[in-house]
């Protein structure tokens, strides 16, 4: 396995029981990830795309699969000549499983990778995602991350501390929440605030709501605030993200 292309996130994953994954499923994930062609540092804006893949998330995972390619479309326009977007998929599920793909610049490759993964029951591992982003940023420049989830079952103070570290590195967090769980809302809003990003809710039954949020985050990762402002002219959702980043809500 090429360590730069795919790896478990955090030490706990190495000791996680194997019984929660279907036979061959992780091997298929690793095989797909190794075929992803890494992008040269600086070739494109970089966005970590992190998702909660515990059991309750299957409808949203399927939705994200169908929408993520369109992030690349807006990012290609925002990035300018030689720009665009490189995305790294990070997900957690089951008993201590948290994995990261290589950096991907082709939407069809990321879609194929995501379709190999099924959601499994387990608790949230948001802290491991944030630590991974922090550590990944030591070797490649990351402008932003997206986290999509509906729950938070961890220590809020620990998440806040990690978010603060990312904020100091200039990595913006776009935290998109399905539902209205109060613990998740409070934690997600704190992560967004401490990273200088934005927290927003979406409805899985209204796909356009998540699409516009993803497009806004992708535009920022590819072209910064100016790219978001251009997109905001035709997208109220992106306008809302900018207002949240500016402390407007």
Can you tell me about this structure?
This protein is of the alpha/beta class and 249 residues long. It has one domain (7-245): von Willebrand factor, type A domain (Rossmann fold, 3-Layer(aba) Sandwich). It is 45% helix and 18% strand. The chain has 9 helices and 7 strands; from the N terminus they run E-H-E-H-H-E-E-H-H-E-H-E-H-E-H-H. The protein has helices at 25-34, 58-67, 69-79, 107-114, 126-136, 156-168, 182-195, 207-232, 236-245, and strands at 7-8, 45-52, 85-93, 97-104, 144-149, 172-178, 198-202. Strands 1-4-3-2-5-6-7 form a 7-stranded mixed sheet, with helices on both faces. Helix 3 packs parallel to helix 8 (207-232), helix 5 runs parallel beside helix 6 (156-168) and helix 6 (156-168) runs parallel beside helix 7. The longest helix is centred in the C-terminal third of the chain and has 26 residues, at 207-232. Residues 12-23 and 32-42 have low confidence and may be disordered.
Biggest sheet statistics: 7 strands, mixed
Gyration radius, rounded: 16 Å
* Fraction of residues in helix: 40-55%
The shape, in one word, is globular
CATH fold naming: Rossmann fold
Strand order of the largest sheet: 1-4-3-2-5-6-7
List its salient traits.
Rossmann fold; globular; 18% strand; seven-stranded mixed β-sheet; 7 strands; 249 residues; alpha/beta
Write the layout of secondary structure elements.
Layout: E1 7-8, H1 25-34, E2 45-52, H2 58-67, H3 69-79, E3 85-93, E4 97-104, H4 107-114, H5 126-136, E5 144-149, H6 156-168, E6 172-178, H7 182-195, E7 198-202, H8 207-232, H9 236-245
Parallel strand pairs: 2-3, 2-5, 5-6, 6-7
Antiparallel strand pairs: 1-4, 3-4
